[in-house]
Design goal:
The complex is a heterodimer of chains A (319) and B (558).
Chain A (H helix, E strand, L loop, with lengths): L2 H31 L4 H6 L5 H11 L5 H13 L13 H36 L4 H15 L2 H15 L15 H7 L1 H27 L2 H8 L4 H30 L2 H6 L5 H10 L3 H29 L1 H4 L3
Chain B lengths: L3 E14 L7 E14 L3 E5 L6 H7 L9 E9 L2 E2 L5 H7 L4 E4 L3 H4 L6 H11 L5 H14 L5 H4 L9 H13 L5 E5 L7 H18 L2 E6 L2 H7 L2 E6 L2 E7 H6 L4 H10 L14 E8 L9 E8 L4 E5 L6 H9 L6 E6 L2 E2 L9 H6 E4 L13 H13 L3 H14 L16 H14 L4 E5 L7 H18 L2 E6 L2 H7 L2 E6 L2 E7 H4 L6 H9 L7 H12 L17
Parallel strand pairs in B: 3-8, 3-9, 6-7, 7-8, 13-18, 13-19, 16-17, 17-18
Antiparallel strand pairs in B: 1-2, 1-4, 4-5, 9-10, 11-12, 11-14, 14-15, 19-20
Helix pairs in contact in B: 4-5, 4-7, 7-8, 14-15, 14-16, 15-16, 16-17
Classes of the chains: A mainly alpha (319), B alpha/beta (558).
Pfam family, one (chain A): BPD_transp_1_N
Subcellular location (chain A): Cell membrane
Protein name (chain A): Peptide/nickel transport system permease protein
Chain lengths: 319, 558
């Protein structure tokens, strides 16, 4: 290890932080541009102008924009996410529980989908252009091509309604045991796995096949190494950077993109929370959810970048 | 009587081609080739690319590259038939009885593993030795192959050592399992002449010390003459001539072999330069950002109109850097480049469109210098449109005219680079440079990747074009034979400094400076015994300058 590689890593981290900061500004600006008005949403169409003005003053909506941005940012840095405009709850507490739920769902999906995708990618390369490869490609591509809400409803129809094997809604509560929780989230996990599997598996296959064109693969074959050893020792270490990149991208999607699936299965996660409060024009909640999603997304991609740097033997062992 | 190690009889090999829009076709790439190799002997396979020499070499391992299939005949190694052997049997033979040294060792090593792991891998895989024994043998081989710090050399990663060292490491990998046969597939083609000399002598010594048999594949007759007992000349997948090394070199029977022999010993009359120089390089020093030392140091050169300046030197001598300075890609920190009477802006950005037009470049790798998705017509037409605004029919007529100049027909206009041979691709690159009507073309190793006969054709074309169009060339190369063909003046670079400069006759005649002598002596001559003569001569006269590994003859252990 040398100084220059740590400089590169430090650069990625600083860039990540800068990106999170910039996205906070974007999110804040975006929410200011949204049409609609919280006071109107709370009081309804029949409210008098005086009542609306009073409520606006009470909610702090008359303070200049930049002041609100700065105080929001300072609050965030202190762990204070503010209070919800619609129900007056502390947002940090509400989000904390839901974020844990979302991460639980995403992690469960990732633990199944990542190894599965890599194994299927390996199998595809081992049997390239033969029937196992074609079958894996066909099934995964078909599953990614179906919209996730459609997939969710199909699964609910067959496995919950027709067969009764799994609950149709994925309600979980703190009182449930771990096993009960897993049972509850079976269907959403299956949907998420099907959605992210194809992308990761195709990328693993493509990255491995790309490396398999290299001259050193021929060297390994001409040294009499078995096909699996060639892939595992020669192709995998050199294909790992693009694979990790796409895995991280999909992990980020699992956290950020579960909105639809959470809503379909009425799962008490971040997605549902966000959607509820967008409908109520509850700007602080929307902003906080936005910044958390952005931070997760940027962090995971930053980790992928750092991993690619560390996995490059030319950077790890300079001349 | 020695036992027969390898017997190939009436070998027929086919590949599948996929012509666009048609059904895949089987094409025969090797037909009716037979050879016999005794234990400890070396056979050289020689021919231009597409002659099937690598294909035959790999068939001795029962291997067909890509979609290549061994469809007929027999291949017996130690009496065992390999042609239709199951993959389990082939895996057992490869890496133990027969091993392989690739043309580009730089690409042939896994970049993410240490060299030692890769060198001993096959030996361990086939259970030929225990791990400590294998490591000990690898270190011994590193030492015999003159690798530096043989004890710790294996701890490095492929990118941490030079191309010549990797080629030696790959030879060590091939020898480690104590094979009966090693297939050397152009092992020195990618190296410059001085490195080639060292690697060649290391390989020759290793073959002799270990009494291993070898198939040595090359397109350089002079190289194979140093190492082979027998030579087989191939063309278009068929055997042209097969005989002892002595007979092929000194008494070739077939016309094609005679052409090959004379292409390797070419000669040509020279032209005397006159008139105001097209290009003058004055006191140029340049370095890359972040480097403490200059890569080219205080260079002064001139290119008279209608002549060729050859810039010669081994890799790392700064010749390509000089090209980057002239083209403006690397602004020099001192000195100036005067082109056609006026000083050029040091950086590319500051140059006028006319400067760009009048100074063109042709590259070593014609493949990667062209957009694979553009037709020949588009590639050559682009400078016509960019510099002269030619469009439509006018542009097409001009492209056809240029195709005619490079001796390719009108039918090439709609072809894609992938449909052309290596020589044809380089011709298209020449036409693209000519399309700009330049005053000076920089040719960066333009023939290094080509076979000798094809290269000879390209050199002849460049000379003919010079006579007709009056264009000047800067010809960057490490190939002295090419320099003899095209140069009017020669500049020899060594470690960024100009060590010798003058007319061709003057530079290539004694007395030499040490480096020029090494450079000239390193060019293989088509004479059996040249390698030994050269090494002992270099050892006697130039002990300090001898290339890595060429100097001390080590004692054989057997």
């Amino acid at each position: 290890m040398n100084a220059s590689i740590w400089t590169l890593v430090a650069q990625r981290i600083l860039l990540g932080l800068l990106l999170i900061f910039l996205s906070s500004a974007l999110i804040f600006a975006g929410t200011q541009l949204l049409p609609g008005d919280v006071a109107q949403a709370i009081l309804g169409q029949s409210a008098t102008p005086e009542a609306l003005a009073n409520l606006r003053a009470e909610l702090g909506l008359n303070v200049p924009v930049y002041q609100r941005y700065v105080s929001w940012l300072v609050g965030l840095l202190h762990g204070d996410m503010g209070t919800s405009l619609t129900n007056g709850q502390d947002i940090a507490t509400a989000i904390g529980r839901r974020l844990a739920n979302t991460l639980f769902l995403a992690a469960s999906a990732a633990i199944i989908s990542v190894p599965l995708a890599i194994i299927l990618g390996l199998v595809s390369v081992l049997y390239r252009n033969r029937w196992p490869d074609k079958l894996i490609s066909a099934v995964t591509l078909a599953s990614i091509s179906v919209p996730e809400f459609m997939l969710s409803y199909i699964l609910v129809f067959y496995f919950a309604v027709q067969l009764g094997w799994a609950p149709s809604v994925a309600m979980i509560s703190p009182s449930m045991s771990v096993l009960e929780r897993f049972q509850a989230i079976t269907l959403p996990v299956i949907v998420l796995v099907m959605v992210v599997l194809a992308h990761m598996m195709r990328m693993t296959r493509a990255a491995l096949l790309n490396v398999m064109q290299s001259a050193y693969i021929e060297t390994a074959e001409l040294n009499g190494l078995g096909r699996f050893k060639v892939i595992w020792r020669y192709a995998m270490p050199n294909a790992v950077a693009p694979i990790v990149n796409v895995v991280m991208l999909n992990m980020a999607y699992l956290v950020v993109g579960v909105v639809v699936v959470e809503v379909v299965f009425v799962y008490p996660g971040m997605g549902q929370y966000l959607v509820d409060h967008v409908a109520k024009r509850d700007v602080p909640v929307v902003q906080d959810c936005g910044i958390i999603f952005a931070a997760v997304y940027i962090t995971l991609n930053m980790l992928a970048d750092i991993f690619s740097i560390l996995a490059n033997p030319r950077l790890r062992h300079p001349r | 009587m020695d036992e027969m190690l390898l017997e190939i009889e009436d070998l027929k090999i086919q590949a599948t081609s996929y012509p666009p829009g048609e059904r895949p076709q089987r094409i025969t790439i090797v037909d009716g080739v037979s050879l016999r190799l005794e234990k400890g002997k070396v056979i050289g396979l020689i021919g231009e690319s597409g002659a099937g020499k690598s294909t035959i070499g790999l068939s001795a391992m029962g291997y067909g590259r890509g979609g290549v299939k061994l469809v007929g005949g027999s291949i017996r190694l130690n009496g065992q038939e390999l042609r239709r052997a199951p993959s389990r049997v082939l895996r057992g033979v490869r890496g133990s009885q027969v091993t392989y040294v690739a043309q580009s060792a730089a690409a042939g090593f896994n970049p993410s593993r240490k060299l030692i792991e890769q060198v001993i891998e096959a030996t361990l895989e086939h259970g030929r030795m225990s791990r400590p024994e294998a490591i000990e043998r690898a270190i011994d081989l590193f030492r015999r192959l003159d690798l530096p710090d043989s004890e710790t050399f294996g701890q490095r990663y492929p990118h941490q050592v030079s191309g010549g060292q990797l080629q030696r490491a790959m030879t060590a990998m091939a020898l480690c399992p104590k094979p009966d046969l090693v297939v050397f597939d152009e092992p020195t083609t990618a190296l410059d002449v001085t490195t080639q000399l060292g690697v060649l002598s290391a390989i020759k010594r290793a073959i002799r010390d270990f009494e291993v048999a070898a198939i040595y594949i090359t397109h350089d007759l002079a190289v194979v003459a140093q190492i082979a007992d027998d030579i087989m000349v191939l063309r278009g997948g068929e055997m042209v001539e097969y005989g002892t090394c002595d007979q092929i070199i000194n008494n070739p029977r077939e016309q094609y072999t005679r052409d090959l022999v004379s292409a390797t010993n070419g000669e040509d009359p020279e032209i005397h330069p006159e008139g105001e120089p097209v290009l003058t390089i004055r006191n140029v020093c340049a370095r890359y950002r972040g480097l403490a030392e200059d890569v080219v140091k205080d260079i002064n050169l001139e290119v008279p109109p209608g002549t060729t300046l050859a810039v010669v030197g081994e890799s790392g001598s700064g010749k390509s850097t000089l090209a980057r300075v002239i083209t403006g890609l690397l602004p020099p920190h001192t000195g100036e480049v005067i082109f056609d009477g006026s000083t050029l802006s040091p950086a590319l950005k500051g140059r006028s469109k006319q400067d760009l037009q009048e100074l063109q470049m042709i590259y070593q790798m014609a493949d990667v210098a062209m957009n694979p998705r553009q037709t020949v017509g588009t590639i050559i037409g682009r400078p016509l449109e960019f510099y002269f605004g030619h469009k439509g029919k006018e542009r097409r007529l001009r492209v056809i005219e240029l195709l005619d100049k490079i001796e390719l027909g009108e039918e090439f206009i709609d072809r894609y680079p992938a449909e052309l041979s290596g020589g044809q691709k380089q011709r298209v690159c020449i036409a693209r440079a000519l399309a700009a009507s330049p005053k000076l073309i920089i040719c960066d190793e333009v023939t290094s990747a080509l076979d000798p006969l094809v290269a000879k054709g390209i050199l002849k074309l460049l000379r003919d074009l010079q006579k007709r169009e009056g264009v000047s060339y800067i010809f960057i190369t490490h190939d002295i034979a090419a320099v003899r063909e095209v140069a009017d003046t020669i500049a020899v670079l060594y470690q960024g400094e100009l060590v010798r400069y003058g007319g061709k006759a003057e530079v290539l005649a004694p007395p030499y400076d040490d480096y020029t002598e090494l450079l000239l002596r390193s060019v293989p001559e088509m004479r059996i015994g040249w390698l030994e003569d050269t090494l002992s001569a270099l050892e006697a006269h130039l002990p300090c300058q001898a290339p890595e590994g060429a100097a001390p003859e080590m004692s054989a252990t057997d």
